[in-house]
Q: What sequence folds into this?
């Protein structure tokens, strides 16, 4: 096994960070590393925390880290900002309090902000979560910044999705639109000291009644993450959902469908990488022939695919994929 | 050549409509038809009309149809609503005045509202525009409902992108965010009788100064589509941009880059269709082996790709692609 993978699996934080950087850059070597560590994955409970900016997600994450640590569990955190090629500024500032845990070797915190690598943000986030899983963290928390479609894609890789809402934020429409209600397993109404917190909780329950029946009925709880209120109930809900996933047929089929997406994502990336590299000079010349209608894009796509298929041997592909 | 393609190329409206329906459904036979008609494409001027709901896009489109008809040109129109699997209701209502042209055989109007076919909405819209082009329409107008990312993707297939704004709509932020400013070739400030129309036009010009230099400086004009005011200036701007595209190196490189996207889109669809069909029963069983970590998604993706490559002969693919 590669030395970097070995050191990461042994728990060396700098090696884990370097490993995730390779993934983030879409480095082709990272695929081989992922394959090597994959047998060690599947033990962590991956929890996605989403909700609109200002809902107090980072504070909640910090409370959850403390609670898991108190229960003797190690925690890896991935903080995702899809809108920025860098993570920093306000976002990092908001997350500063997470750094309370910076000196705790049972906690690893990593920001991811790149977009545009071949696998897209959700592919990279998922692989980073798998790395933390393989490196032995009992819990992996994935926190997103906003509630758009990218966040849904990112958060979908989690075992348990926790949606954080606050009274008076008026972002219900955006959340409904993005389809987050449907993928949330646990609801938290944060800043419960604000007016209307009970009403928000009630509204969510009414909406849940309208959503098609599932075996798991998402619990809704109030919290005040700033002073640690309500964290116990959230921890119980997370544990209950983890148990549900481990013990039911629904949990298994959800896991299998995630694995299917994973395979297709890898396949897609392998094919795209090959297509990109198949655009040689002559192929680019052919664009002019299409422009003059001497040929057509359908025929060129076919020949390009032939080229993609014949260019590399299957063995090469294995290491690429 | 296929009888449907022949009748469509001869200008039969029902055959054109059926052809576009095949595309919309992502029917595999439509690829072969597209290939057959492709040599006839490349003559129409494709104009995308975008802008927020309520900006008066449909009224403007109706004015442009009349103006092009008066100039002796035939016009095909594609009205796109990405958010809806059907086009109807309010949207169709807004577009009713377009039906002033319903009895004019020099005008063909088609709504597209499906999503989720393999090529995505922008692929289908582009192919529908190519069909209208091949069928001999001199001008193809593509109108979108909103200003989100889907609209940007759809409108990007046009030769000339026209962005319609209105005073006091306050949607500047959304438009900036979606990156529409950058892709617009022509700006129209509609409802010019409203307060602040001149200021909106001025603001756009200031913003254009901030955007990186291009050979084409997008013109900004005022209009009052309801009573036909300002249409002449828009027609002149459209003609000037068409001339720019036809005569400059920038126009050519823009065309080639659109063609490259087209080829990659076709390739992507062909590969996805094959990947979908490669998931046989045994492959699905393997998901359980990944779940138990007996194997890993990277190895399964490789074998699936082998299968995709070997499953169909290249000849089959040609007709698929």
A:
């Amino acid at each position: 096994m590669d030395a970097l993978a070995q050191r990461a699996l042994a728990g060396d934080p700098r090696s884990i960070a370097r490993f995730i950087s390779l993934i983030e850059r879409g480095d082709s070597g990272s695929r081989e590393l992922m394959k090597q560590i994959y047998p060690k994955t599947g033990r962590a409970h991956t929890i996605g925390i989403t909700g609109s900016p200002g809902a107090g997600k980072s504070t909640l994450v910090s409370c959850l880290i403390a609670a898991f640590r108190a229960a003797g569990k190690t925690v890896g955190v991935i903080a995702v900002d899809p809108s920025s090629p860098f993570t920093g500024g306000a976002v990092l500032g908001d997350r500063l309090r997470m750094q309370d845990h910076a000196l705790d070797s049972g906690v690893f915190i990593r920001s991811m902000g790149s977009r545009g690598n071949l696998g897209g943000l959700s592919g990279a986030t998922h692989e980073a979560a798998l790395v933390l899983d393989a490196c032995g963290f009992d819990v992996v928390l994935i926190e997103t910044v906003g509630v758009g479609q990218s966040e849904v894609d990112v958060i979908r890789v989690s075992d348990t999705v926790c949606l954080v809402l606050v009274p008076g934020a008026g972002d219900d429409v955006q959340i409904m639109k993005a389809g987050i209600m449907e993928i949330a397993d646990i609801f938290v109404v944060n800043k419960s000291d604000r007016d209307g917190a009970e009403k928000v909780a009630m509204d969510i329950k009414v909406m849940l009644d309208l959503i098609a029946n599932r075996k798991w009925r998402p619990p809704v709880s109030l919290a005040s993450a700033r002073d640690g209120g309500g964290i116990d109930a959230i921890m119980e809900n997370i544990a209950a959902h983890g148990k549900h996933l481990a013990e039911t047929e629904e949990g298994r089929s959800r896991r299998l469908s995630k694995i299917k997406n994973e395979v297709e994502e890898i396949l897609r990336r392998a094919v795209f990488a090959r297509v990109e590299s198949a655009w040689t000079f002559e192929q680019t010349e052919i664009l002019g022939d299409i422009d003059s209608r001497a040929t057509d894009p359908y025929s060129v796509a076919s020949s390009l695919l032939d080229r993609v298929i014949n260019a590399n041997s299957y063995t090469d592909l294995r290491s690429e994929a």
Q: What stands out?
A: Chain B has two domains: 40-247, 261-320.
